[in-house]
Each structure stands twice: as C-alpha cells, then as structure tokens.
Specification:
With 555 residues, the chain is α/β, with parallel strands linked by helices. The chain has 3 domains: 138 residues, 3-Layer(aba) Sandwich (Rossmann fold), CATH 3.40.50.2300; 153 residues, Reverse transcriptase/Diguanylate cyclase domain (Alpha-Beta Plaits, 2-Layer Sandwich), CATH 3.30.70; 227 residues, TIM Barrel, CATH 3.20.20. It contains 21 helices and 24 strands. Helix 7 crosses helix 8 and helix 10 crosses helix 11. It is elongated, with a radius of gyration of 39 Å.
Amino acid sequence: MAELRALLVEDSEDDMMLVVRELKRGGFDVEFESVCSEEALKAALRQQAWDIVIADHNMPGFDSMGALRIVNDHAVDLPVIIVSGSIGEDVAVAAMKSGAHDYIMKDNLARLVPAVERELREAENRLLHRRAEATIRHMAFHDALTGLVNRYEFDERLKHVLHAAEADDQSQALLYLDLDQFKLINETCGHAAGDELLKQLAALLRAQIRDSDTLARLGGDEFGLLLCNCNIHYAEEIAHKLLKAINGFRFSWGGKSVAVGGSIGLVPVTAGMDDPADLLRAADMACYAAKERGRNRVYVFRADDADLVHRHGEMEWAMRLRQALDEDRFVLYRQVIAPVRAGCEMRREELLLRMLDENGTLVSPGAFIPAAERFSLMPLLDRWVVKNAVRHASRSSHGDIHFINLSGASLSDDSFYQYIGETIRAEGVSPEALCFEITETAAISNLSRAVGFIRKIREIGCHFALDDFGSGMSSFSYLKAIPIDYLKIDGGFVRDIAKNAMDHAIVEAINRVGQAAGLQTIAEFVESQEALDVLHRVGVDYAQGYHIHRPELVS
C-alpha cells in the first residue's frame, strides 16, 4: 500500500472518517491528523511534512478559503482538495482560482482517490520542476566546478558594493588571487588533478572568510573576494591569512604531495569608484605586480603607482594585439633600400609591420611591440610577417631582395625555422629573394642560438642581416662569429652624421670593419641629402630612410 500523510481540515468526526475510509479503500496507508482552526492548521503545517490537505468548505469561524491562504503561505506545492457537502459553483470557481486543486461533493467520494492520485503526481512534477529551475538558477550564478559564485554574479555583487561605498561611505575591499604554478600541475598531473585541486582550494579559502564576504572563481585558477565593511588594514590581514592557508596546504595526487602558492592583488573600494571593470582591472594589475615581485605575496594597489599604470597600458595592448591577430588586422609596408656606392645595383626593400586599430587607423610598431615582447606575442607576429612577406616576395620582380625583421624570441622557437622553410616552399619563392634580420642586441643576448639559427637559414639559400649595429656598443669581434651578409648601421649614428663629428667617425669605423669582413653595409635613418652625401664619401653600400623613400603600403 502507498503511504499517504493527509492533513484533514474538518470539524465533523463522521465526515473525517468517511474521507479516511475512502482513501484506505483506494489503497492508501493513511497517516492523518484533523484540525478545524487557523491556529491548529498552522501548527500542524509547522510540525511535519504533508502529502495533501483535504479541507471542508464550511466550518464555524473558518472555511476552505482561509485554509487555502494558510497552506499557500506555508508550501506552494502542497495540493489542497476541497470536500464539501454543499458548495456553490461560484464559490468552487473562486476556490480553484485561489489555489485549490479540486473540489469534490461529499455525496460523490468515489472521485476522491483518483483526484488524490492525480494531485500527488502533479505535486511531484511541480517539485521536480522547481528543483530543476533552482538548479538552473544556481548554475547561472555559480561555478560548476567549485560551487563558488561565478564571474557574472561576482560582477553584480561588485556593483552593489560600489553603490554601498558611494551611499554609506562604507569600507570595502577587493582581492584578486591567482595561484602560482597551477599550469605546471595541469601539465604534469593532468587536468583532472587540476580540477580536484581547484575544488579543494575553493573549500579551503571559503573556510577562511566570513559569511558576509563573497568568494568567486573568476576563471581558470583566478579567484575574487569581496570583503564588506572591511578597512584596508583588516583586508591585508585576511589576504595574508589566505596566503598562509594556501602555503600550508598540500595537494595529494597519484601518490605525490604537491605544494602550491598564490599571489594576491588588493584594492580598497572607496567612494567615487563606479566601474566594476576598472576595479577588477586594478586588482588584476596589483596581482600581476605581486607575481613580478617574487610571487606568494600581497600587493596593495595605489592609484598613483606609475609601474602599475604602465603595466595596465601594456596589458590592454596585449589584449588588442590578440584581437588584431584573430581578425587579421595587420598590414605590411615596404621601404626601398637604395644603392649608394657604385656597383650596388640590385633592388632591395625592407618590409615593415603595421597594425590597424578597431577603427582602421594605422598603428606604428612602437606602440604595440613592447607589449608583444613582454607578453610573449612576438613569435605569433613573426609568423604573420613571414607568411605575408614571403607571399609578397613571390609576386615581386625577379632579383629583388626583401628584408624581413624577426624578433629574438623566435630564435628560441625550434619549430620556427621549419615554418620558414615550409612557407618558402608553399609560396614557390626563391630563398635568395629573402633576407632575414635581427637586431644586434637580440643576437648577442643568445649568441650560440642566434648563430645556429642564422646558419640554418643561410643553408637554405636566404640572406641574413644584423640590424641596429652599434646600438648595443658591442665589440667588432662579434662580426667574426656571426655568419651574416649585411650589416645595418644603427640610425642613431646616421641621422646627424653631416653635423656630428663623433657620429661621422663611428659610421666610418663600422662601415670599414663591415666591408673588411666581406659584408655589405646599410645606413638607416637617412633623412637629408647632406647625410646621403656624407655616406657616399664614406663608402657605405646602401642607404635607407625617409629621404630615400617613405614607407608605402604593400599592394
């Protein structure tokens, strides 16, 4: 028999027993209680859970409409069936609109059991539906892995905190926590280990904070913490407490015990702040500063911190660069390298990288290259340049030589040399039409790798140039070790060569040594006829600069 907990709202014991008997005849094992007043009904609802409420319509000082209101206030999914000896159709309709699930006349109790069975099924369906809705709502605002608040909900709560700081002048604080070496755990132990680590750390961090605080997983191994009614000094104490807990934690996986660390950026939330995105950016920058200062520490953001402001600018450029790469918003410009000395007639040009911003405006490399270097994006830019420069070379006149800049970062990429070879073969261009160049500083900073890379490039038939020579004040002896074809004299010495005797002497010395080593020399930053005349007298092979040719878009 099916168990049924029935709460009967009835003042007649005979009618109550008729209902119970009918339910038992229908196959229910009935546990019931009878009440006949508002107070008794409320007490019974508080004391235990019921499957169904069966109410008489008319009782002294109490009716089914009053019972409906009480039941609906207590449990919206608890079904109510009205059983009455006399109820008008208008009253029955009003009762159904108020939440009754059915009404049955006492002289037709044969309908009771089917109605109860139906309403129990419907109640179960409503309960399951509400649970599903609650799960969906929870998933919308919480991280599926850790159960913490997610980024969207954290942003919403941050807005409320900013409003409170403005309205009530309350002390609030925002912490941005990034785990140190989390990627190493993912790579060595696998992503399942990384997920388990995040779950355990989420529980550990949650145990260190107050119920009024908000801990969120913002993405990956990054967590955010909102501290309400908390001044900056207490916030620092909490931040150090969190770091201490993380440092004392040992993660066990596959028989190994792994230690983890964290870096925390702390931002005081004060009146006048109104943009959650700016606040999170400030906290992220402070966290990055903590990492740069040795990791496993707390860094407090200050609005006048010049280093962080500079870092913020570079981080924004890094994001813009990634987007520009995704949207292919880069172009190549060409600048002619003209012969100066007799006998140097073959056409040469340098291919220069430029970026188009979100509005299509041209951006010079000086604006984005520092960020690309700091955030390890140069190898991606180098590949874009190689692909498009080689493609341009394949469409150019026979005999032209195209100079292509490479960063020092790409020299450390073992697959980059292979990429160059594959691109040359795919475009069907003669390797002799290409001359790759790196700066003197990049070459000297990792001399053995640079020499190995240059040799491999020249073995496939390409030329190589050493750019900005003289800027690093390196010894001429390096020219014996680096197997290059061209030596580009740093433009800082060339620009004022007609006016500055020291610049004249330096350029003359570099040119003489370069040519003695069998190299062809190129003077950069030639911006006047006077400078060009001096270079002609010095005997430089080629000249490059605005006086020779202003860069133009590669068609």
